[in-house]
Amino acid sequence: MTIASPASITDRTRRDYCAACGNALAGTYFALPDRQERYCSDCIATRPRCDTCSAPVGNQHWTLHDHRIQCTTCHATAIYDPAEAEQLFRETVGAIIAQLHLELRIGVSFRLVDVPTMADIRSQASDGHAPDERVLGLYQRRGDSRAIFMLYGLPRLLFRTVIAHEYGHAWQNEHAVHLTDEAMREGFAEWVAYRHLCYLGCTKAARHLLTSNHPYRPFLEQVIEIERQFGPLGVLDHVRRAGA
Q1: CB 157 within 8 Å of CB 150
Q2: Comparing C-alpha atoms, which of 44, 52, 66, 45 is closest to residue 134?
Q3: Is the pLDDT of residue 210 over 90?
Q4: In this structure, is residue 195 part of a structural domain?
Q5: Is CB count within 10 Å lower at the N or C end of the chain?
Q6: Can you say whether residue 112 is alpha, beta or left, with left for phi > 0 and alpha for psi between -120 and 50 degrees?
């Protein structure tokens, strides 16, 4: 998911501390969208960025085995253990079925992977995305095999959001197999993620999908308009007809 560029803010009455280096802030400081942390100009310019949230990392941070850098905030809830990831996958899918009734006839397996493995999987498929596009999760069907692949080390809520998006693609593959319109394909998958966040009570994260500078945002807005007119079941009917 795309993280918007940090915005510059000037506040000469506020005295705060840089979240990366710990030095006192005065005058101009920087902040990331939807984050409370503040950063000094030196840290914005010189420090490595977290590969998950794009924030400058502090002196304490983690380097994963596939060379991604993780800040303390993202690391605090990151999913590293395959068994934990599998359980969270099942919980997420169960919640989506309970909320939206998106059952699969055949089902889909789950795999937790690193960046090189994800790149190798993508190289074997034509999914319409640029080769250098940042990918957090991927649904793929090859013959009789259907699987959702997820990067390890994603924060818990982001993990569930991406799982929901990819599960939306899995449902499309069974119920709207001929759906080729990218706006509807990605808009529907993002709508599943949006509705899942609402189901979890994560209204701020759900709202972020509608306000962030993200390429799927206009597609999501189109599907939400369909839902506004015809309800959630109307969205499913629309996708089925479009992919018939």
Answers
A1: no
A2: 52
A3: yes
A4: yes
A5: C
A6: beta
Torsional class of 61: left (φ above 0), alpha (ψ -120 to 50), beta (otherwise): beta
224, 192 contact by CB (below 8 A): no
Asked if the model's pLDDT at residue 11 lies above 50, the reply is no
Q: What is the mean pLDDT of the chain?
A: 90
Domain of residue 45, residue span = 7-77
Rounded Cα distance, 216 and 97, in Å = 23
Residue type, 237: D
Does some domain include residue 145? no
How many Å separate Cα 156 from the centre of its chain? 10
Q: What is the pLDDT of residue 34?
A: 73
The angle subtended at Cα 50 by Cα 31 and Cα 196, nearest 5°, is: 85
Integer Rg of the chain from CA: 19
- Same domain? 65 vs 170: no
Q: How far apart are alpha carbons 190 and 168 in whole angstroms?
A: 8
Count of CB atoms situated within 10 Å of the CB of 135: 17
| pLDDT tens column, 125-162 | 766 666 667 899 999 998 888 999 999 999 999 999 99
Assess if residue 104 is contained within a domain.
yes
Q: So what's the pLDDT on residue 237?
A: 97
